[in-house]
Design goal:
Layout: H1 7-10, E1 29-33, H2 36-43, H3 48-58, E2 66-70, H4 73-82, E3 87-90, H5 98-109, E4 115-120, H6 123-129, E5 139-143, H7 147-170, E6 174-178, H8 182-204, H9 210-216, E7 222-226, H10 229-238, E8 243-248, E9 252-254, E10 257-259, H11 262-273, E11 279-283, H12 288-295, E12 298-301, H13 307-318, E13 324-327, E14 334-338, H14 341-347, H15 353-360, H16 364-371, H17 375-382, H18 392-411, E15 416-417, E16 429-432, H19 438-453, E17 463-466, E18 470-473, H20 475-484, H21 488-491, H22 497-506, H23 513-524, E19 528-534, E20 550-553, H24 559-576, H25 580-588, E21 598-604, E22 608-609, E23 613-615, E24 618-623, E25 639-643, H26 648-651, E26 657-659, H27 673-678, E27 683-688, E28 704-708, H28 709-714, E29 722-726, E30 731-733, E31 741-744, H29 747-750, H30 757-772, E32 776-784, E33 790-799, E34 819-823, E35 825-827, E36 830-841, H31 852-866, E37 873-878, E38 900-907, H32 920-927, E39 931-936, E40 943-944, H33 946-951, E41 954-957, E42 961-975, E43 980-984
Helix pairs in contact: 3-7, 4-5, 7-8, 8-9, 10-11, 14-18, 15-18, 16-17, 17-18, 22-24, 23-24
């Protein structure tokens, strides 16, 4: 903030206010004590329930009360025994006062139930009431035939029941009405509440979704009714900081007698204590106008036919009701009209100087905000008075910063309904549509909520932890798109992926989305990731991670081209539901494809633009359980895989840096020079922003660039994450020097505290696992600046589903003679004894990775024959299964090997590739209880009896792959905490 502003207002600390605990006490059941005839008159042919219900619906209120009428003590007792009565309305009749006797009997038995008298305006009844004991009644009202009065009575009693708690809880405001005339306050209260309840609708418009809107209405201003000077002053002294305004009669009791100037004395006393609170005097004696205006009070004539309208205008002008109207102080002409918090934020620097000075010197901004339920900002600005800070531009800046801080606070952890009028660069997470958010969408909303519940995430100076700006296109748009474009026939056919995509690209999305998308572009002004979020995706027991497409589109100034790219990307994600691999996966998981629904996430891509390519400094995947603990690491401490550039590099099985967040100084890959040069990242992925394309392909990485570290060095993107290899001295120096190969070590953030990455990763794992009650996998991306500031973006969370099978045996103690294969570096946990089949790659010491594409096709063909059966198999082969680089392993996707129960990666004498763990593949393996074994017989590290497999007859044999079947089931044992796995022969 501007350094001209005193430090006390530079640090804006706002306390979040929740509305869910407001208005806890409600009137649900009303007992009307009256003779049948008077009750019938009140009910107007029995329609009072209907009228009150209609009033509630029209005003957007909930919980309309029900009414029960009794005329005798016996009837009243019968009702009170079966129903919890919240309010008693006593109606004395013309013929007798039996209603009072019934009311006294009820009050004697239920002393805490509020009671009021409702009497027709009749001289006879009024005279007779003078002889009654009215001490049991909270209020006496005059019935003028208007059901609005019943509503006002209920609201007045509810306000009285809730005012102390709601002021303490949230800082709710009150209007103090001082009036002793029964007839007059019976007339004014319905008008006052009518306008307050309209204002409550305005309060609700500041909410981010319908649920929050309903809750915000509970924060409306409350009314307290005082009938004497002492009662009014006591209310003011009790709530001095929460009085929105005072409306007072002139003549009412003071010191036990009617005082013709009690109102003037009261308002003078209040003005002495508060120079800003609006004071309105109302009187039927016209000579009081001059007295009021002389003192600077506003005046309303009770005799005026437009009295209620005059009062309404004064409340608009001085109590902050309605729009904020900025006026020229000389001409009183309107110069600007503000109807929402965002409009105030957008226009605060455009208000003319004189008008701004006029309003801030009278505390109008704070009052308008408090009337709209923006209590934290109102309370903060109330202390920033003109006397303390005589600088209009500084006031503007403080108001702007406070609003931005408040909107950020309220956006966190909330899925807002997308509103083009509200969504801007300060907005956070919104949904378009009424359907489901899908799996990833739910995960993002959950992450956002976790961040909100743990403010310690943002306790590091200069570091912001959040989720990227996100909008979710809900599943109802998927249904609409499919049906209106008649796409199910081609989608469910055997058409190729490319053919399906072309049909989807030719289809039309609803035109109504274009304006929403344009607003999103303007708010983000950066590349956008278009991600799948299906109903089944990332579900607790059947994660569909990595099955559907994720596209990225660059940001360009041409709005029409942006729309074309975004629409094509959304259609591409929709189409991917029906691709060949997706259908195979559906079959493998026993799901029906037409039950799948797709939401789409539109999300700002984390990163920086480097002249045509866009990427973050750090991408990572966290797992809160580590099946590969090294040294003093523990399985429950979790593991992270870090990489430079887009996270697709990790997903595709690239060479990442593997580190435990609890042991950042212990990185096996960089512990020796040889491994650091061999086993660290040499290239990275970035989005091509120089060549925007609208010809989308089935391959969602068609516009992703594979770049070398030289490009990142030229982009100055390696600070704190790279070191330099000094070939002359044969060492790696933890800094970036002009000469020498760059090595991605993340040393600056892991070892030298340049950025609190280890601490934030620890928090993310701990709080994510606590909230989900199971191990989790979390994707994230970081931008780390040269000045050590930056942002940590949480992108996704999903559960890692562990096997529930118990393992009672000591796997390491089993003799080698019993084993077909053994791994001391295994992933997975549990017992399986129903597998008889083994599919393995035919290899020897002269194996060549050049055949790996053919191997993938042959394995897929064999795997397809297992689909639809209850059989599974053990898959064995050299190198990394699932690598996108065929030189490192067999480039299969999960659907190609979905029937495998155990996957074994073998290191050969002339083909040694470090085992892969950093892909979506991992999530599917663990979620389906699939074991992952690594065996290196050269070390030796593990055991594999290939000669046993070679001796068995082949069920099927191709050029590179062999399928064999044992006569008896093999027994698989995996100890995930110790990393030991064996397959036993019976």
């Amino acid at each position: 903030m501007d350094n001209k502003i005193p430090q006390e207002w530079n640090d804006i600390l706002l306390k979040d206010v929740t509305f869910i605990d407001l208005m806890k006490h409600r009137i649900y059941n009303v007992l009307i004590v009256a003779n049948p005839y008077d009750a019938f008159m009140l009910e107007d042919d029995g329609r009072i329930d209907e009228k009150i219900y209609n009033e509630y619906v029209e005003l957007g209120l909930r919980y309309p009360p029900t009414f029960r009428q009794v005329s005798t003590i016996e009837e009243a007792e019968e009702v009170m025994q079966s129903v919890s009565v919240d309010l008693v309305i006593c109606m004395p009749g013309n013929a007798d006062n039996d209603a009072f006797a019934v009311a006294h009997a009820v009050k004697e038995r239920f002393p805490l139930v509020p009671c009021v008298v409702l009497t027709p305006f009749s001289h006879g009844i009024t005279h007779r009431m003078q002889n009654e004991d009215l001490s049991i009644f909270d209020y006496v009202f005059c019935w003028l035939g208007n059901t609005n009065l019943i509503l006002s009575i209920i609201k007045l009693i509810e306000d009285k029941m809730n005012v102390d708690h709601d002021i303490e809880e949230a800082g709710v405001q009150t209007i103090l009405l001082v009036e002793d005339s029964i007839r007059f306050y019976s007339s004014i209260l319905p008008n006052l509440y009518s306008y307050i309840l309209i204002q409550s609708k305005r309060i609700s418009t500041e909410a981010l979704n319908r649920h929050a809107a309903a809750l915000r209405m509970r924060g409306r201003p409350k009314v307290v009714l005082a009938r004497t000077y002492e009662e009014a002053l006591a209310y003011y002294e009790k709530y001095p900081n929460n009085i929105l305004g005072v409306i007072s009669d002139v003549r009412f009791p003071k010191d036990g007698v009617k005082d013709p100037e009690a109102g003037l004395k009261l308002l003078r006393e209040i003005r002495k204590r508060d120079e800003y609170v609006p004071l309105i005097m109302e009187s039927s004696e016209s000579h009081n106008r001059e007295k009021a205006e002389k003192e600077g009070f506003r005046f309303v004539d009770k005799n005026s036919k437009k009295m209620s309208l005059d009062l309404r205008h004064l409340m608009e002008e001085h109590m902050g009701f309605g729009d904020f109207i900025f006026r020229d102080p000389k001409t009183r002409q309107e110069v600007a009209r503000i109807s929402s918090l965002k409009e105030l934020q957008d226009n605060i620097f455009n208000i003319p100087y004189d008008s701004m000075l006029f309003h801030i010197s009278r505390n109008h901004v704070s009052r308008w905000l408090s009337a709209r339920g923006i209590f934290p900002v109102s309370a903060f600005l109330k202390g920033v008075t003109w006397h303390k800070l005589k600088d209009v531009d500084a006031h503007r800046q403080i108001i702007f910063e406070a609003i931005v801080r408040y909107r950020n606070m309220k956006n966190l952890g909330v899925v807002a309904v997308f509103d083009r009028m509200k969504f801007d660069r300060y907005a956070h997470f919104a949904r378009i549509g009424d359907g489901s958010l899908g799996g990833k969408g739910r995960g993002l909303a959950f992450l956002d909520n976790v961040i909100k519940r743990h403010p310690e995430f943002n306790s590091f100076a200069g570091v912001k932890v959040h989720i990227p700006k996100t909008v979710v296109l809900c599943t109802d748009f998927f249904d609409q798109f499919m049906e209106q474009n008649n796409l199910y026939q081609v989608a469910l056919s055997d058409a190729s992926d490319a053919e399906i995509l072309q049909h989807f690209l030719a289809a039309q999305l609803p035109d109504s989305l274009k304006a929403d998308f344009t607003t999103f572009f303007q708010a983000t002004r950066c590349p956008i990731a278009v991600r799948s979020s299906s109903l089944l995706e990332d579900a607790h027991y059947q994660p569909f991670a990595g099955i559907y497409s994720t596209y990225m589109i660059p940001y360009i100034d041409d709005g029409e081209t942006m729309l074309q790219m975004l629409e094509a990307a959304i259609k591409g994600v929709y189409a991917s539901v029906f691709y060949k691999d997706s259908k195979a996966y559906m079959s493998a998981t026993s799901n029906v494809i037409d039950q799948e629904k797709m939401a789409v996430i539109l999300q700002a891509v984390v990163g920086n633009d480097h002249g045509g390519h866009y990427y973050p400094n750090v991408s990572g995947v966290l797992r809160s359980i580590n099946y590969y603990p090294v040294g003093n690491e523990k399985a429950e401490e979790g593991i992270a895989n870090l990489a430079l550039g887009l996270g697709k590099y990790i997903v595709d099985g690239g060479q990442t840096l593997r580190v435990s967040p609890y042991h950042p100084n212990q990185v096996l890959q960089t512990s020796e020079l040889k491994t650091a040069l061999r086993d660290t990242q040499t290239h990275f992925y970035a989005l091509d922003t120089a060549h925007p394309a609208t010809d989308f392909a089935v391959d969602d990485g068609f516009n992703i660039l594979k770049l070398g570290l030289k490009e990142a060095e030229q982009d100055n993107a390696l600070h704190y994450i790279a070191a330099t290899y000094d070939a002359n001295d044969g060492i790696i120096r933890e800094a970036i020097y002009p000469e020498g190969r760059k090595v991605i070590t993340f040393g600056g953030v892991l070892k030298h505290d340049a950025f609190p990455l280890p601490q934030i990763m620890q928090m993310a794992m701990r709080y994510g696992e606590e909230a989900m009650k199971r191990p989790v996998e979390i994707e994230f991306a970081c931008n780390i600046n040269a000045d050590r500031t930056g942002e940590f973006n949480l992108l996704q969370i999903r559960p890692i589903v562990d096997s529930k099978q118990m393992l009672d045996e000591d796997v390491a103690a089993i003799a080698d003679e019993q084993c077909l294969l053994r791994s001391h570096n295994s992933l997975g946990h549990g017992v399986s004894d129903d597998v008889t089949d083994v599919v393995y790659v035919k290899y020897d010491d002269h194996f060549s990775a050049a055949h790996n594409y053919s191997v993938a096709q042959e394995v897929e063909s064999i795997n397809n024959k297992f689909l639809g059966t209850d059989r599974n198999y053990i898959l064995i082969g050299p190198g990394r299964w699932g690598s996108s680089d065929f030189w490192l392993g067999v480039p299969v996707k999960w659907p190609h090997i979905s029937a495998a129960r155990i996957i074994v990666e073998v290191a050969l004498k002339n083909y040694r590739v470090d085992p892969s763990q950093g892909t979506h593949f991992f999530q599917n393996l663990t979620s389906f209880g699939v074991g992952y074994f690594t065996i290196d017989t050269n070390v030796p590290d593990g055991l594999l009896r290939k000669e046993v497999l070679d001796a068995l007859p082949a069920v099927e044999e191709t050029e590179h792959v062999r399928h064999v079947r044992f006569p008896r089931a093999l027994r698989i044992l995996m100890d995930g905490m110790k990393g030991e796995g064996v397959v036993l022969m019976n």
